[in-house]
Each structure stands twice: as C-alpha cells, then as structure tokens.
Amino acid sequence: MLNQLTLTKTRLLVGDALHELLAQKLRTFLTLLGMIFGVGAVIAMLNIGKGAEQEALKMIGSMGLQNLIVESKSYTAEELKDIREESLGLNIADVEAAMSTLPFITHYSGEKQIKLFALYSDYAKADASAVGVTSSYFDLASMTPAQGRLLSDDDELHVSQVAVLGADVAHTLFPDDEPLGQFLKINHVWFEVVGVIAAPQFNKEAFQGVKINGDRNRVFIPLSTSQKKLNMEPLASELDVVKFEVKEDYSTVLAAKAVTQLLAQRHGGVDDYSLIIPVELLAQQENTQRIFNIVMACVAGISLLVGGIGIMNIMLANVLERTKEIGLLRAVGATQQDIKLQFIAESFVISVIGGLLGIFFGLVLSEIIGFYSDWAVSWSLTAIVLSVSICLLVGVGFGVFPAIKASKLNPIDALHSD
To answer: What's the mean per-residue pLDDT of the chain?
Structure first.
C-alpha cells in the first residue's frame, strides 16, 4: 500500500511538473539548451576519446607492444664515407649478436628498402616502394594475408622471385584482374605474386611522429633475393630496419637499453641508428589523450554549469510568478515538504528531458566531428550514463535553492502578494 501511494504521488508530481513547464514553452526550451549542449559535449568528448584510444591500440599493434624497432639513419654519400670507417651500419651480424647474447630477445625481422627504377605489371605502373624482408616480418608487424600466402623461410633459402603486395599497390598493378599468379617487374627482375596483405583497420599515416601504415603501398620480396638479384646502393647499410621481439614478462624499456649498449659497441660509438620503443609511444599517446579529455571535460562541465544556472533562473522566476498559488496551497494544507518536492520535481523533469535530448545530440555531434575531422569515434555506454547522471545531479542541485525558497514563503504574505 505504501509503495502504491508513493508511486501515485510521484506520478502526480511529475504530471504537475510537466504541466507547469509546458505552460512556459519558450522559457523551458531555452533552459533545456544548456543541458542539451552540456550532455552532448560530454558524450561527444568521451566517444571521441574512446575512439582515439582504440585506434591508438590498433596502430601500436601494427608496431608491436613487445617490439623494439631499430632504424638506420639516412646520410649523404660524403657522410657515409666517413661513417663507414667506424661502422658498417645496421647489418645481419648485429642481429645475430643480439640474438646470441640477449636472452630476452625471442624473434627478429629485418628489412631493406630497394632503390627502384621501375615497378610495373602487364596492366599498369605503380608509384609504390619495394622492400626485401625476412619471413618473420609479417608476424612481428601483425600482418595477415587477404589472398594467397606470405613469404616463407623456403623463399628466403632458395632466393625465390616471389612477391607479396600491399592492398593499395595490388589494386594499382592489377585493377581488373586477380593478382595471384600474375607477374610484376621490379627494376630488371620479374616476380610472381603469391599473396596480398589485408588492409589495416586504420588510416593514419603516422603515430606520435613515427610513420606507419606504409605497407599498403609496398611490394615485399625475400630479403635474400633483394640482396643477391637487385643492385644495392654503395656504402648503404645491409639493413634499414630491424625489429626485435622481447619476452612478454620483460620490460621493453630495459631491453632497449641493453640493445643500445650492444649496438654502440658494435658500431664503434657511431650513432648511425635510432631506436623506437612502441610502448613508450603508446604512453605518450595516452598522456596526450588524457590532457585532451581534461580540457574537453572542463568545456563540457561549463556547459552543464550554465544549464544548471538556467534551471535555477527558471525555478526562481516560477517561484515569483506562482507566489499566490503557493500561498493557496499552504492555506489548504500543503506542507513545506510538499512545496519543496513540487519544485524539485520540476527541476528533475527538465533535467531528464535535457539529458535524453542531450544523448541524441551527443551521438549526432560525435558522428559529425568524426566525419569532418577523420577522427575515430567509438560508442561508450559509460559516456552516456556519466553525462546523464551529471546532468541530473546538476539540474536537481540547482533546483534545490528555489524549492527551499518557495517552501519557506509565509502563506499569508503569499496570498496578499501582487
């Protein structure tokens, strides 16, 4: 019985609140705008933040969280003459030394950029790049074939003239035909296409200043084939990039220090390489995203605060306009608690309506921002729950003061007010 009475009383309070708000449609609408924009801003901010986080994880996944990336630096021919007196550059011997002396290194991959003079098929030419890689390259880069197969150890061993294509270059060279089993020419050597790489799920070209996603427009051939059948630049390092995989239970930061010391000894102290630690890049991205979220949260919080002030204004105006009504209600037996609940109910109802409309606005705003800025957007239930909860808290909180003011009006003075 008690629950039934409470439910009935709640319905009456909500019904009366809706009636009073609808009586002042323009004022109510203007008050709602603050809540709508505030909730929408919070939802959009959190959705974009979550999308950026997921995209960062995808991008860093292509680099490998447990990987270390060593890149050979670029120099002019004159600079290389001096450097080669002290260092041979990044080479297979460096890799073998690391694998034999550093127990926390489990796998490696190597790659060497090919100096291109021509890259074409029977159907088209391509403005792409070609690179010789070890068969382990694809595993450490988390790459999978969309068609055919990847390069194998046998390809490396037998110096096979086979190639795996990135998604973009495959479409360029074979626009209307199946690429598998077809042939393409790199400089003066023909290669058979044995596979096509699946396109990554992100479109960014760089992550924290490090280039990624270039594999879409690359042709991969066995490293041994590139070294023995294609001309290399004089004095160039044997490898351009080496990627080391570190044991899962071992810190990549500590591993990087050990690799740096080893390479420094082998290269005679010449700093002709750079070391990239993907896990540190992810930490930088997370820190940047955290700052972005704080700034956006402040902006969204101000919007909600403005909305809350709007609710207080409309409630205070209602108190002034309905002074006689309040006096009459007190005269016929309404308690201060009843008056207080009535005005709080109005604040609650306008907050709920603003919150629901704000959800719709926030979802639309997220898509618009994502579309025009090319940012990733991911739906976040947490964003919706959090924003609506804050909206209700702010709305009801700012409605308490007018409700208390209304409940404390003297009934006799209220009845005689103009």
So the answer is: 82
The candidate with the shortest Cα–Cα distance to 191, out of 239, 115, 121, 117, is 121
Q: Count CA atoms closer than 13 A to 297's CA, side-chain side.
A: 12
CB atoms within 10 A of CB 19: 10
Phi and psi at residue 263, to the nearest 5°: -65, -35
Cα dist from 263 to 15, 105, 373, whole Å:
76, 14, 42
pLDDT per residue as tens digits for the range 184-224 = 999 999 999 999 998 776 555 555 555 555 578 899 999 99
Residue pair 268/87 in contact by the 8 Å Cβ criterion: yes
Pairing of strands 145-148, 206-207: unpaired
What pLDDT is recorded for position 370? 79
What one-letter code names the amino acid at 254?
A: L
Find the radius of gyration of the CA atoms of the chain: 33
- Residue 413 has a pLDDT of 62
Contacts of 308 (CB under 8 A, 6+ apart): 34, 394, 395, 397, 398
The token pair that represents 179 in the structure block:
């690429």
Going by DSSP bridges, is the β-strand pair 206-207/183-186 parallel, antiparallel, or unpaired? unpaired
- For every residue of the chain, which 3-state class applies, written as one string? CHHHHHHHHHHHHHHHHHHHHHHCHHHHHHHHHHHHHHHHHHHHHHHHHHHHHHHHHHHHHHHCCCEEEEEECCCCHHHHHHHCCCCCCCCHHHHHHHHHHCCCEEEEEEEEECCCCCEEECCCECCCEEEEECCCHHHHCCCCEEEECCCCHHHHHCCCCEEEECHHHHHHHCCCCCCCCCEEEECCEEEEEEEEECCCCCCCCEECCEECCHHHHEEEEEHHHHHHHCCCCCCCCCCCEEEEEECCCCCHHHHHHHHHHHHHHHCCCCCCEEEECHHHHHHHHHHHHHHHHHHHHHHHHHHHHHHHHHHHHHHHHHHHHCHHHHHHHHHCCCCHHHHHHHHHHHHHHHHHHHHHHHHHHHHHHHHHHHHHHCCCCCCCHHHHHHHHHHHHHHHHHHHHHHHHHHHCCCHHHHHCCC
Looking at residue 224, its pLDDT comes to 93
d(CA 21, CA 19) in angstroms, rounded, equals 6
Percent of the chain with pLDDT over 90: 24
- The torsion region of residue 213 among left (phi > 0), alpha (psi -120 to 50) and beta comes to left
Fill in the amino acid letter for 183. F
Is the distance from CB of 250 to CB of 68 less than 8 angstroms? no
